[in-house]
Amino acid sequence: MDKIGRYSFEEYLKMVEAFHGNVAPGLLLGGIMVDYAVSQMAAGVLFDAISETPACLPDAIQLLTPCTIGNGWLKVIDLGLFAMSLYDKYNGEGVRVFADPEKLKDWEDISIWLYKLKPKREQDKDRLLAQMEKAGRAVLSKRIITVTAQHLGKTSRGAISDCPECGEPYPKKDGAVCLACQGQSPYVGK
Ligand SMILES: [Zn+2]
């Protein structure tokens, strides 16, 4: 591996640091995964993305593809798996890339990191990053997928009106009052 997307490893790691705050190993492996997935998509296909974990991978997808959380082309479906997919946004056909346990056996530092076999401070991060760079796609597998109709397309929020309780605009389909007023607010008090 000498490139991630159109970037050299060094350029990519600099972007990661600027965007993510530090050079997290998950963004390096994640970048290699995204690069692999992109290479499997036919040119010209408009694709959406799914990250199966909220950790690291969504940032790699946002750095390397046009898909972001904000534009709705990236969905995070938290299955707890270090895996992601890209798929044709119209027919749902695409590719899923995942860390393959069988292949990880040959890469000790990557295994120790992924399976959390040692506390972070006891892991050699430089060696881990070097191993990821050397391994590249060798620790990954892919399979062809079709995304379910339920997950295709944008989920419309429907009609909006002011919440009778807090007064802020909210999607009416959420109920008589907004979700925050239904007790789902993350804040103490009102
Ligand atoms: Zn409200």
Shape: globular
CATH class category label of the largest domain: Alpha Beta
Distinct bound molecules:
zinc ion
- Alpha plus pi helix count: 7
Poorly predicted tracts of residues = none
Total number of domains:
2
Give me the CATH fold name of the largest domain. Answer: 60s Ribosomal Protein L30, Chain: A
Give, in spatial order, the strands making up the sheet with the most strands. 4-3-5-6-7
Give helix % range.
25-40%
Number of strands: 9
Q: Into which percentage range does the β-strand content fall?
A: 15-25%
Assigned CATH architecture of the largest domain: 2-Layer Sandwich
Largest sheet features:
5 strands, mixed
Rg, rounded, reads 19 Å
Distance between the termini: 52 Å
* Helix-strand category: alpha+beta
Overall mean pLDDT score?
Answer: 95
Which H/E pattern describes the elements?
EEHHEHEEEHHHEEEH
